[in-house]
Each structure stands twice: as structure tokens, then as C-alpha cells.
Write a structure and sequence with these properties.
With 421 residues, the chain is of the alpha/beta class. It has twelve helices and 21 strands.
């Protein structure tokens, strides 16, 4: 196959690397295209939680109604950059439209179907002895601190259970037994026995990328700039280095997908949903598994190099300098919850690629027989990378993806005016 034109996978984040690896394991020549090394952007700093319980899209009435309250709280989980609001308005209007009850029900069913095999697909993707330990199945705990928070969590648990998620209600004493490091009073919680987490998300992606390269996968460290098309097919990938003939393309470039999508006849209204993390030394709080705090909007995940505090949503910040006070808020939360937590050993920020309905774009590009899109995974890039990769490999091979992809249709927002090629 050394002389065969490859499938070009654009994007070396966790979704792109997983797709490249799945195509490679299917026996296809693959070219992974990204100017940055695997796992360099959001994949480097995500929460590390395989969130199989996240069946409800964030575009829903309860979240929409809570926006004013969240915005008025200095330590709240949501903030807007004022200068970015005008350009964000079209996205926000689409978000509001996606929050209609009928849309939420349909989105929940679609997302639950996608999440249903996420854990199993990751286990299949990491079947080698040196890769399997990168993910641990130790469950996850969600904690509530107020009666209102507990009531909301119980309602959401009913939705999860109805869509096949195993969830166990926890009383305050049971939370204390599972998470003895907690010193703050709680009203209860939930345990998700099937949840997993990455011991080091960046290493997971880098090790997958290294395995891809070691087994003959090619890497092109150039930014993709466009496509050559002929007869309803993509014939070449364009980069600053020139044109590379391809047998097909997979667009999995996160936020960069928005600029490339018109070349595939698509308009993807992706926004940069900025998140932050702070790393604490492991001794800051001994946690048995990821522990989330919905009312505070963050999660604490034990990793091989410390305790990661990740969360918050900052909109309208694309292209602007980080507001490190958002990461400092996470450390203050940890002090409230676990007692004298030390200063952060490091801080990080990254921009999640998010579509207004909080469903990823997965499927064929319109009118192109050999172009597949896999982007817009919002908070669930790590969670959904392996299942997305399995679907992409099936689509490229002309097989059955295993579920209805219409809710994730990349063309559901609009088709772009075809570009000249």
C-alpha cells in the first residue's frame, strides 16, 4: 500500500488521532495532518473524564434559564467576554432554538445513542498492554451541596437511567465514605460505576499517535488550507507545502474545521468555548475517581501527575488573552471543598469546538463521496473520540456506522456556497 493515496485525517487532537488509528487498523494508508504534535491543544488539558453519563445536551431550558444567575456570580461557572458578544449572537440564537423541549428530547436520545458504546469503543481502541492502563474504570461521583442541586441531580438521573446509564443515588454519608477528602457539607450525590478516566489525557493522545507512526502511519506537520475536488470527490489536500493526492479526507480539526468546512460545501457554526484547568499536587486531596460539582461547574480528576481541577465556560473569548482568574476560581473551590489546598502547580486554558445544539458533527460532507466530518465535540472530545473513530472508519469503508447519524449531520445548519476548485 506504500504507493496508494492515503486517507488524510486533518487534526491531531484526540478525535483526529483516534480516527487515524481506527482507519490504520482497518488496513488503510493514512496521513495525519496537523502543524502541532498530537495532543497539543484541548486534548492536552481536558478533564480526563469519560463522561458516559452526559446524555443531555447543554442546550436545554434549565441551562438557558440559569444563565443570568451564573453570569452575576463572580465565581460562577459561566462568563461572557463583552467584546466577543456581538459576534457570538448568531450562535446564541441557535443555542436558544436548540433549547426547545422537542429539540432537547431528540438531542438527548441522539447523544445517549452515541455515548452508549463510548466506554467499550475506548477499551477496543486501547487493546495493547501498554495502552490499556491509560484509562481506568473506577467510576465517577457527582456531588451536590444544596437541596435544589440535589433535586436537579435526581431529575437528571432519571433521564440518564431512561437512556441506559447506570447511576446510583448517594446519601450524604455514602458520599463521605466514597470521598473522605471532602470537608464541605453535602446534600447527596450520585455514583456512575461504568465511568472511566484518563491518567494523563495528553499522554494518551501522544501514545496513540506514536503507535500510529510506529505502524507506518504518515504525519504531515503542515496546516491544511483547502481541497482540490473533481467529480464529486476530494482529489487532493492543499497545504503550504503544495497539493497531496488523497483517497479521501476526514475533517477532525476542532475549531479550525470552521475555516476548512466551506471547501467541503459546509458551514459549521463552531464557537470557541473556553475552559480552564489548574493542577494541584496529588496530596492536595486523595480522590478515588473523578468527582464533579455541578453547582460549581467543575470536576476534580486524579491523574498520574497530580489532581486536575477542570471546568468553567467562557464565551466570546476566542482569540483573546486568557483570564487566569477563571483558573484561580477552581483552586478556591478546591480549598472550600477539601480544606487547605496548595497553590496551583500549573494552569492551562483551551478552546473547545462547540456547535449551538451541543451535538457533534459526524457524517459525510454533502455531495462528496469521500469526505467525512468529525468535529464539534464540545466537552466530550475525549469521551466520544473512540466511538467517533469507529463510525468514521465504517463510513470511509462504506459500511454500517451502527447508529442513526441524521442528528449529527454536518449539513444540519447550512450548506456553504461551493468554492471554486
Amino acid at each position: 500500500m506504500s504507493g496508494a493515496a492515503p486517507i488524510a485525517v486533518i487534526g491531531a487532537g484526540v478525535v483526529g488521532v483516534a480516527c487515524a488509528r481506527a482507519l490504520q487498523r482497518a488496513g488503510l494508508p493514512v496521513l495525519l495532518v496537523d502543524p502541532a504534535p498530537p495532543g497539543s491543544l484541548c486534548s492536552a488539558g481536558n478533564a480526563g473524564h469519560i463522561a458516559i453519563e452526559a446524555v443531555s445536551p447543554l442546550s436545554r431550558p434549565g441551562v438557558l434559564a440559569g444563565v443570568p444567575r451564573m453570569l452575576t456570580s463572580p465565581a460562577g461557572p459561566l462568563t461572557l467576554r463583552a467584546r466577543g458578544v456581538p459576534s457570538l449572537l448568531p450562535w446564541m440564537l441557535r443555542f436558544a432554538a436548540a433549547s426547545r423541549p422537542s429539540r432537547v428530547r431528540a438531542g438527548t436520545a441522539a447523544l445517549a445513542a452515541l455515548l452508549g458504546t463510548a466506554a467499550a469503543d475506548w477499551r477496543a481502541a486501547l487493546d495493547a498492554p501498554d495502552l490499556a492502563p491509560l484509562l481506568r474504570r473506577e467510576g465517577a461521583v457527582a456531588v451536590t451541596e444544596t437541596p435544589a442541586g440535589l433535586a436537579a441531580a435526581r431529575r437528571e438521573a432519571a433521564v440518564m437511567s431512561a437512556h441506559g446509564v447506570r447511576v446510583e443515588a448517594l446519601e450524604p454519608g455514602e458520599v463521605a465514605e466514597l470521598v473522605p477528602a471532602l470537608v464541605a457539607p453535602v446534600t447527596g450525590g450520585q455514583f456512575f460505576p461504568d465511568a472511566m478516566h484518563a491518567v494523563n489525557p495528553q499522554r494518551l493522545v501522544r501514545d496513540l499517535g506514536a503507535r500510529f507512526a510506529a505502524e507506518g502511519g504518515a504525519v504531515l506537520a503542515q496546516p491544511a488550507t483547502g481541497f482540490a475536488r473533481e467529480g464529486g470527490r476530494v482529489t487532493a489536500l492543499r497545504t503550504a507545502a503544495g497539493e497531496t493526492p488523497v483517497a479521501g479526507v476526514v475533517l477532525a480539526a476542532g475549531l479550525a474545521s470552521a475555516a476548512l468546512a466551506p471547501g467541503l460545501g459546509l458551514a459549521l457554526p463552531l464557537t470557541a468555548e473556553r475552559g480552564y484547568h489548574a493542577m494541584l499536587p496529588a496530596e492536595a486531596a486523595a480522590l478515588p475517581c473523578p468527582v464533579s460539582f455541578a453547582e460549581r461547574g467543575f470536576i476534580a480528576t486524579p491523574m498520574e501527575h497530580g489532581l486536575r481541577l477542570a471546568g468553567t465556560v467562557e464565551l466570546g473569548a476566542g482569540g483573546r488573552a486568557p483570564d487566569w482568574s477563571r483558573a484561580d476560581i477552581l483552586v478556591r473551590h478546591a480549598r472550600d471543598l477539601f480544606g487547605g489546598a496548595p497553590e496551583a502547580a500549573s494552569r492551562w486554558t483551551g478552546d473547545r469546538p462547540t456547535l449551538p445544539d451541543y451535538l457533534p458533527a459526524i457524517g459525510r460532507a454533502p455531495g462528496l463521496a469521500n469526505a467525512v466530518v468529525a468535529t464539534g465535540h464540545q466537552h466530550l472530545g475525549l469521551t466520544l473520540a473512540a466511538v467517533t473513530a469507529r463510525i468514521v472508519a465504517a463510513l470511509v469503508a462504506g459500511g454500517d456506522p451502527g447508529l442513526d447519524l441524521r442528528p449529527f449531520d454536518p449539513a444540519r445548519f447550512a450548506r456553504a456556497r461551493p468554492e471554486r476548485t
